[in-house]
Amino acid sequence: MEKRCTDSQVKGVSTGTTILAATFDGGVVIGSDSRASIGGEYVSSKTINKVIQVHDRIFSCMAGSLADAQAVTKAAKFHLSFHSVQMETPPLVIAAASVLKELCYKNKDELQAGFITAGWDRKNGAQVYVVSLGGMLIRQPVTIGGSGSTYIYGYVDAKYKPNMSKEECLQFATNALALAMGRDNVSGGVAHLVVVTESGVEHVVVPGDKLPKFHDE
Amino acid sequence: MMIFGNLFTALNLKGVNYCCLPVTERSNRGKMAAAASMMPYFAQQISSKNDLVPDWMGQEVSTGTTIMAVEYDGGVVIGADSRTTTGAYIANRVTDKLTPIHDRIFCCRSGSAADTQAIADVVTYQLGFHSIELDEPPLVETAANLFKASCYRYREELSAGILVAGWDRRKGGQVYCVPIGGMMVRQPVSIGGSGSSYIYGFMDSNYKPDLTKDQCLDLTAAALSLAMERDGSSGGVIRLASISEAGVERKVILGNQLPKYSTH
Known about the structure:
The structure holds 2 protein chains of 2 kinds. Chain A is α+β, with helices and mostly antiparallel strands.
């Protein structure tokens, strides 16, 4: 097919990756693969978790340079917990996303990291925000990111419907991750999924051999 | 100069030659501006981003595109978008990228417009000659091998990704993929072009073996419209064709009739 430049022109360990988040009726599903690679030639970890809990009901997935993403997430967790103590209330999802955005935007020349922040709060319910590489912040009902996401734009556009049930959304997210991992060589391993609703947080891990299989496998 | 050479290739379609003048002094710039629209002016001026000449005049014509071909029992369905770009300008918004090579053999072109047109012309000639010698309709595999021979031999100079699809009596409907570099492989379903990256997931999940012709047409139309929505180099109308023993049926789906997918 056509020559394609991947967006993983990062030095060092990179999360050439697939991450996604989708809202359903009453919550969000956040998911990612679990592969970390160096330059697309060596898999430095088969089982890293790219879905980080930044607060009780707020999660963030990282993409880009793993070092940058981890550093930013650590700083963001600190800022967010401080903010939450000052406000004496659980933080809003948009607050978490804004903290990440500030860090990404102010340091855009040095950093190469993007995030998907998703969660549930009392004011606005289930939300998904994406902070891109340069520090743009927008809210979307469903969003995908990372190098593997290019292969599933068509699938997500066709299959996602607003206000699905939790099971449908979980199946949709698992399928999307499996499809991306099947085509992108720097995404793989297991699928980490987290379901966040008002009542709590549920972790689901789908190992590689239990992922849905498609016609040519 | 590399850019120079490419411009010549790009604009030498159908043997029309554009003259090259050396760079003139400043006093002639006013005249050049008026003449620019009538006689394209190629030299260092293009690469130094002269204001008088728009950016896209220095870019090669490309069918950044989305193409797809699917086999079914008794034939093949092929489809393509209709956008040809020179940089950011859409040179042709109603391009036909489904090119007949023989009565029951078509190719879908992606990559450089000039390269693919030239290769298709060469293969059409070679295949026509071969078919006359044989005194019977040629095989799709033969056409695919001819494409592969040209694409592989001139792999350093060419930028062409081609899908060869058609029907013959020996093996029925077949799709062969000849991507950049000159490999050839038969696949039941194949996609190509810049927009194809976005629909790998959709295709993997929606294609099943043993589809009917109408299911193939629907799948191709859906996949192409998803790709056209996401890829800036793909757009316009969807051109479809189905090839079988009975013949070739062509269809066009206009922009306002495309299936709509808008989630966000």
